[in-house]
């Protein structure tokens, strides 16, 4: 495809610059810091904080504290109301909504400077993709949309974004011609309508060569959606008309593909690798998160699409990029933002060139959005150095859950599950901590997907003992502050988990299944204890 060749040629210089600079990490980071200081110092927020355009790296680290979103919320909210970004002297294209581990929506300013920083990581990533997976050059691609809750769609209007919007204008125009799914599907009336339209375009594309999603559970959900809507999709694709969804899809033309319609009508709806091989014979690569709690779901997605190779994502957040895959490694995106790293135990802060292999740290980002020394609560481990640049592996979310002082972490949950006696056919979804886990007492629930009658007593005992290895958890149990850990197994637990997150206002497609999450209030009804059998 001509558009693929043009995009490949367009990203080659970025790949060369990234590789050339691998020996000059400190020089590159200090240069990016000087650029950022000039832009921040010229902004209202920078002037208010007394930030100087000539601040050195060391003075910046000494004068400014580590921050979280709440430190910026008031200024960001004012900027949204005024239509400007007070945090940095760079025109702001939009405010991108995201969500963390709770329902609170965060709005990240996407300035021209920040978009340039993201493009600085996307360029070398794409260059490496085309080099490692040459079949991508001969087909079309699907890059996941930035899915929004239905309730936000009317207020955002045409500001709903697809992931191509992270590229520079030139690359975006070329890349748009390579896409299986037009970005206009994001403007559908509801999330369901957008999802349906996405599936229609994907099923109609026999030349699909790349499927890139963030969460593997979202990728599995796409495949399950094909089964759920296969009759309706077959009718739409056979006629080339949205039918009863016509009004909801006013912004997008409808694909027509009788071949795909016939495949769907002949399909029994069972998710099998054989069916997806026939549907997408040119699929060369699937890209999704594959670390920490996403690992079992990544394996499942890979097993359903074995005709394609699989590549794990690096560490990206709406607030910025930390790593991306390149030549089999996950190097720091050192040409994008200004990076520091904080030790989660003693709080010590390191420049990226000070990191050593084996260290476990949390990234601090200072970016062209104007967020400075912004801590991502992600724990990463330094696996190696690529010349001077550290390569990092995502270990999970670092934030603690503390219902009654037990101070549990996702890392502890991952360690417990790593040695757990899982029954056959049972997959861990995660652990949730509820203020009322049943019978009016707070506690932890291990969520599992599988047959509801699966024997999990041994698993519950193992997890309880593993958690009890942590002093504060054991003390809370001894003092009867926490209910015993309980395992809940449902055939559709993953979808129930994601549905609850969506109900709390979290962003579709970007919801990451986490090893440990706090769910305020009473546990949802689907997690209620099974009633005890009544004796005759």
From TrEMBL:
<feature type="domain" description="GH3 middle">
    <location>
        <begin position="333"/>
        <end position="397"/>
    </location>
</feature>
<protein>
    <submittedName>
        <fullName>GH3 auxin-responsive promoter</fullName>
    </submittedName>
</protein>
<dbReference type="InterPro" id="IPR004993">
    <property type="entry name" value="GH3"/>
</dbReference>
<dbReference type="InterPro" id="IPR055377">
    <property type="entry name" value="GH3_M"/>
</dbReference>
<dbReference type="Pfam" id="PF03321">
    <property type="entry name" value="GH3"/>
</dbReference>
<dbReference type="Pfam" id="PF23571">
    <property type="entry name" value="GH3_M"/>
</dbReference>
């Amino acid at each position: 495809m001509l558009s693929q060749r043009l995009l490949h040629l367009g990203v080659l210089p970025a790949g060369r610059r990234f590789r050339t600079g691998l020996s000059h990490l400190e020089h590159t980071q200090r240069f990016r810091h000087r650029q950022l200081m000039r832009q921040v110092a010229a902004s209202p927020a920078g002037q208010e904080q007394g930030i100087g355009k000539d601040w050195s790296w060391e003075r910046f680290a000494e004068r400014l504290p580590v921050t979280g979103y709440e430190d910026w919320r008031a200024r960001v909210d004012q900027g949204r109301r005024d239509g400007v970004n007070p945090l940095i002297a760079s025109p702001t294209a939009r405010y991108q909504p995201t969500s963390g581990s709770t329902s609170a929506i965060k709005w990240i300013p996407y300035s021209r400077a920040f978009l340039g920083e993201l493009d600085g990581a996307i360029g070398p990533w794409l260059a490496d993709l085309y080099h490692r997976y040459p079949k991508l050059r001969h087909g079309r691609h699907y890059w996941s949309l930035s899915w929004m809750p239905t309730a936000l769609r009317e207020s955002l209007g045409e500001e709903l974004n697809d992931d191509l919007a992270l590229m520079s204008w030139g690359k975006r125009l070329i890349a748009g011609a390579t896409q299986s799914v037009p970005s206009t599907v994001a403007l559908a009336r509801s999330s369901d309508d957008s999802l349906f339209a996405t599936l229609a375009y994907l099923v109609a594309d026999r030349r699909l060569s790349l499927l890139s999603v963030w969460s593997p559970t979202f990728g599995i959900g796409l495949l399950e959606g094909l089964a759920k809507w296969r009759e309706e999709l077959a009718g739409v694709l056979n006629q080339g008309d949205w039918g009863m969804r016509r009004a909801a899809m006013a912004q997008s033309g409808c694909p027509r593909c009788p071949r795909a319609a016939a495949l769907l009508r002949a399909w029994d709806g069972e998710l099998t690798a054989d069916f997806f091989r026939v549907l997408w014979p040119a699929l060369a690569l699937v890209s999704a998160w594959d670390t920490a709690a996403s690992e079992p779901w990544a394996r499942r997605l890979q097993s359903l699409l074995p005709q394609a190779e699989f590549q794990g994502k690096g560490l990206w957040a709406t607030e910025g990029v930390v790593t991306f895959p390149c030549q089999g490694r996950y190097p720091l995106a050192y040409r994008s933002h200004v990076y520091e790293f904080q030790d989660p135990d003693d709080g010590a802060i390191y420049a990226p060139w000070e990191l050593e292999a084996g260290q476990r740290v949390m990234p601090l980002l200072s970016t062209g959005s104007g967020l400075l020394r912004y801590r991502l609560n992600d724990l990463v481990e330094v696996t190696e150095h690529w010349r001077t640049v550290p390569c990092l592996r995502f270990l999970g979310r670092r934030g603690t859950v503390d219902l009654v002082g037990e101070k549990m972490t996702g890392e502890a949950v991952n360690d417990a599950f790593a040695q757990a006696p899982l029954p056959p056919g049972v997959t861990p979804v995660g652990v949730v901590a509820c203020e009322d886990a049943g019978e009016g007492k707070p506690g932890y629930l291990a969520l599992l997907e599988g047959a509801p009658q699966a024997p999990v007593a041994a698993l519950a005992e193992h997890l309880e003992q593993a958690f009890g290895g942590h002093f504060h958890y054991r003390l809370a149990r001894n003092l009867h502050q926490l209910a015993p850990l309980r395992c809940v197994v449902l055939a559709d637990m993953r979808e129930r988990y994601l549905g609850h997150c969506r109900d709390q206002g979290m962003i579709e497609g970007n919801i990451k299944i986490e090893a440990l999450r706090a769910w305020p209030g009473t546990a949802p009804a689907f997690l209620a204890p099974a009633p005890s059998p009544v004796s005759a």
